[in-house]
Amino acid sequence: MKRLLTLALLFLGLFSPVFAELAELGINPLRLEAGARPLGMGGAFVGLADDVYAVFYNPAGQAWTKGISITAKDIENIAALEAYPTGNNSSLGLAIVNYKLKNIPVPGSTNEANYSGDTIQVSYGTKLNFLPFLFQQDIFQRIGVGLSVKGLFGQTLRQTGRRDMTGSGWDMDLGLLYKGTDWWSLGACAQNILPAKALGGGEMKWDSGGTEGLPYSLNVGGAAKVIGDLTSPIFMEGRELNLVGEFNYAANSPLLIKFGGEWAMNKTYFFRAGVMQQWKPSGTVSNLNLGLGYRQESWGFDVSSYRDPLSEEGCLFFTFLYFPKDWVVQKKLDVEKPSIKLEGAIERISLEDNIVTKNDRLEIVGKVKPGVGVYVNGMLASTAADNTFKVTIPLQLGKNLVIVEARCEGEKKSWKYKVLREASIDIAEEKQVQVDLERAQTEAEKEELKKKEKEINQRKQKVEELVTMGVIEVSPEAEFQLNASITRGELSTWLAKSMGLPLPKISRAPFPDVREDNPQAPFIKAIVDWGLLQPYPDGTFHPDEPVTKEEGDKLFNLLKKAQR
């Protein structure tokens, strides 16, 4: 019996007691949710990770980010972090967080707890093509990996009726980010991945001699820029819409969901909203987060609302950001192959802003520095041995935005050009006057025909302007007759389009001779409602009847004014 008691005491002495102080209160000391921008989108950031707060949410995103930020809720809750680009598509992150949680309900009692502590985090993120045998493959330039090491210092837990406890510990995070294209990405981050006691980490060590495991979690999410430049599904110049979503699974909580969005105007003003699910011992809670942001070239400011699930306290987070232009901690030196500055990567190009053409295709040629690839609207330009390139792109009628990208070693820089494609139409009267000029016998006849040709060309230019703007529709293979009669239905369509009139919804025939399924019906109804054309006394409109000269002169004057 004595031997058994001795063995039991020896066994208990080999192991420290295991506590569950933080787990009971729902506190995860190394699950840091900070930054006004991510919180404004509901905390769904692991699949986006495109700014300095990738250090906290997904260290793999550091391969594409740099900067400094300071976030504060109050004087007791401040987070400062930096992401230093080290060259070679990599970044080194450093974060220091001071935080305090107050008035946390203790389950099963009327007591409350307060928790405070300091955390330091060092992380590194890089693209997967840092491996030599992967460098030349484009897909690995789109994959980032990252690792974070997090240490707890001076963690203090205070509960009513119990002595204060202090503790320390450390753990690691592993992140992955895949940028499938320029408009969507997927990310995952496994947090607190060390098993308890592995390498001396993976647990909280209390001053009382007990230990407590740090709960692991897995976060998986995605992001999509559904509105943006020509690489996005929906093109809208000067506007962007990012949608983000995320699933969180932790060892001490159920599967949680976060989603949100960010609307950007001219990459300067930002509006954010998101829904965040969070776990607490009594169950999960869902909160709506809202945020605003402002950006300049080298600095920015964000603010967002947030509700802490443990204290049920609503608060505001404020973040100030700074983005150094040429901040490089370490730069690779390669004597045989000097680095390329992308600003001068394209030595010449046959593009300039506001080009006007009547061709349906545009050929672009130029020359680049060695090692630079050129993409025009997402298409790779063919580059010759002398570094000259050529690519032909289609143009739509009207305004076109051409985006030229120079890419080298995973970095890229883009330039935007505006190109206007004007309509080109065949005029029946123009062909006839050319035939008449060839047949003319006297100088007087030729002079008269030349005046007529000049007048036709002037009228042709006006018609081409209207076709370019989409006011008039002319089939490419058809000839347009300037002197042909225009019907009342056609004129109604042209006028409504050119003046930008709102079109009514047609649920029944607006006139006895204009059925509701007539394509011209909404235009005719709009023109009549605005008093520009009148129906006949018997209530009919006669859409196929030619416009009278008086009506045409009056209405085309209105049309010209609308186009000015």
Describe the structure.
The model is unreliable at 1-18 and 328-339 (pLDDT under 50). The protein has three domains: 23-322, Outer membrane protein transport protein (OMPP1/FadL/TodX) (Porin); 342-421, Immunoglobulins (Immunoglobulin-like), CATH 2.60.40; 485-563, no CATH class. The chain has 564 residues and is an alpha+beta fold. The chain is 18% helix and 42% strand.
What is the mean pLDDT?
81
Q: CATH-wise, what's the superfamily of the largest domain?
A: Outer membrane protein transport protein (OMPP1/FadL/TodX)
The strand count comes to 28
The level of helicity is: 10-25%
Strand content: 35-45%
What is this structure's SSE topology?
Blueprint: H1 2-14, H2 21-25, H3 36-40, H4 54-57, E1 67-74, E2 77-87, E3 90-105, E4 112-127, E5 143-159, E6 165-178, E7 184-191, E8 203-206, E9 211-213, E10 217-228, E11 234-235, E12 239-250, E13 253-265, E14 269-280, E15 283-295, E16 299-308, E17 313-322, E18 346-349, E19 355-357, E20 361-368, E21 373-376, E22 379-380, E23 382-383, E24 388-394, E25 398-408, E26 411-421, E27 426-427, H5 428-439, H6 443-468, E28 479-480, H7 488-499, H8 521-529, H9 549-563
Parallel strand pairs: 10-11, 19-26, 27-28
Antiparallel strand pairs: 1-2, 1-17, 2-3, 3-4, 4-5, 5-6, 6-7, 6-8, 7-10, 8-9, 10-12, 12-13, 13-14, 14-15, 15-16, 16-17, 18-20, 20-24, 21-22, 21-25, 23-24, 25-26
Helix pairs in contact: 5-6, 7-8, 7-9
